[in-house]
Amino acid sequence: MIVVSAASGAFGRLVIDRLLDRCPVGRVTAAVRDPGGAADLAARGVTVRPGDYDAPQTLRTAFEGADRLLLISSPELDPSRRAAQHRAAVDAALDAGVGSIVYTSFLGADTQADGVTAAHHATERTLTASGLPHTLLRHPFYSEAFINPGLRDAVASGELTDGTGGRGINTALRSDLAEAAARVLTEDGHLGRAYDFTGDLWTYDQLADTLSRLYGRPVVRRDRSGRAPGAQGWLEEQVRGGALERQTGDLRRVLGHPATTLDEAVAAVLAPHLSPAPPS
Ligand SMILES: NC(=O)c1ccc[n+]([C@@H]2O[C@H](COP(=O)([O-])OP(=O)(O)OC[C@H]3O[C@@H](n4cnc5c(N)ncnc54)[C@H](OP(=O)(O)O)[C@@H]3O)[C@@H](O)[C@H]2O)c1
To answer: In this protein, which residues make up the domain named NAD(P)-binding (predicted)?
Structure first.
């Protein structure tokens, strides 16, 4: 049996979808903080069990009988609390006799013990210390932080504003990362490995070009004056400093095919909101 924790989130739901393409529904269990919010999964025949990172006693029962567990990292922002939640999950997995763990880590967590990777770094060490066979899926930032329905404003105004300084961005769509996770959970040969997943590099100039071509209206990229508010400003600063330019072949290798292209990603995200240009 494959148990997916935090299965009610955006990534978890995509993993469940991809697992159901690859194995019988009776093999898939969703562990969720609030089973009431996962009635749709239960309606599809997925076993739903309570599993709260803050209530370790629920985790042992949630993981019972799993030969493979996908431990999806918690959205908790405080690194010590987040690392403690993950430690509780690993302890519960040991206690429940889980066969192996696949953990959604983050790029750089192997070497960076602070900042956004602090809890991931600690969890990778917890997994090593546990002695449990495991696989690390180090994710990049999700493309959806940049490629989202907000882009329809750029198509409408003809201007795409950003603060990335034209640097490359190695994000990947949740859907590609979910397919990779489903493959790792259902194939042999992944235990003991650490994958550094990156999408193919793209830039805001390319994004403006994609929007222009797909929607048949000129979209021009402009530099933002000042910093974007909140998390977007921080993220753009990371891009401008070149922090998102690392490239590996791991995602393509695990998928067995190239990741979704920029054109495909934009078309998929904006399809419900905009009509594409007629073919020329
Ligand atoms: N790579 C990136 O760019 C990126 C960006 C954002 C987040 N992340 C990380 O990737 C994970 C998955 O991303 P996502 O987009 O699927 O996030 P999401 O949609 O916010 O889902 C988060 C999931 O965590 C669950 N959760 C929250 N607290 C929990 C607890 N105490 N015990 C058990 N489950 C708990 C939520 O359950 P409820 O449904 O009950 O709320 C939800 O299922 C996030 O949790 C975060 O660690 C990565």
So the answer is: 7-187
> What does the mean pLDDT of the chain come to?
96
Predicted confidence (pLDDT) per residue in 58-68, tens digit: 999 999 999 99
Pick the CATH number of 146-170+200-245+259-270 from 3.30.530.20, 3.50.50.60, 3.90.25.10, 1.10.3720.10: 3.90.25.10
Pocket test residue of 3, 4, 5, 8 for ligand 1, highest count of atoms within 8 A of CB: 8
Tally Cβ neighbours within 10 Å of residue 194.
15
| pLDDT in the model for residue 270 | 86
45 Cβ contact partners less than 8 Å away, ≥ 6 residues apart: 25, 26
Sequence spans of domains, the chain: 2-139, 146-170+200-245+259-270
For residue 154, give every residue at least 6 positions away whose Cβ sits within 8 Å of its Cβ, in sequence order, or none: 160, 161, 208, 211, 219
Question: What would the two tokens of residue 138 be?
Answer: 């180090």
Which are the contacts of 266, defined by CB distance < 8 A and separation ≥ 6? 147, 151, 207, 210, 211, 214
- Please identify, in words, the CATH class of the domain defined by 2-139: alpha beta
Tell me the whole-structure pTM to 2 decimals.
0.96
Q: Is the pLDDT of residue 173 over 80?
A: yes
- Quote the ligand 1 centre to 74 CA distance (angstroms): 5
Distance of CA 167 to the CA centre of its chain: 22
- Per-residue pLDDT, 106: 98
Q: What is the pLDDT of residues 193-231, one digit of tens each?
A: 999 999 999 999 999 999 999 999 999 999 999 999 999
Name the closest-CA residue to atom 31, ligand 1. 53
Nearest to 268, CA basis, from 14, 83, 64, 37 = 14
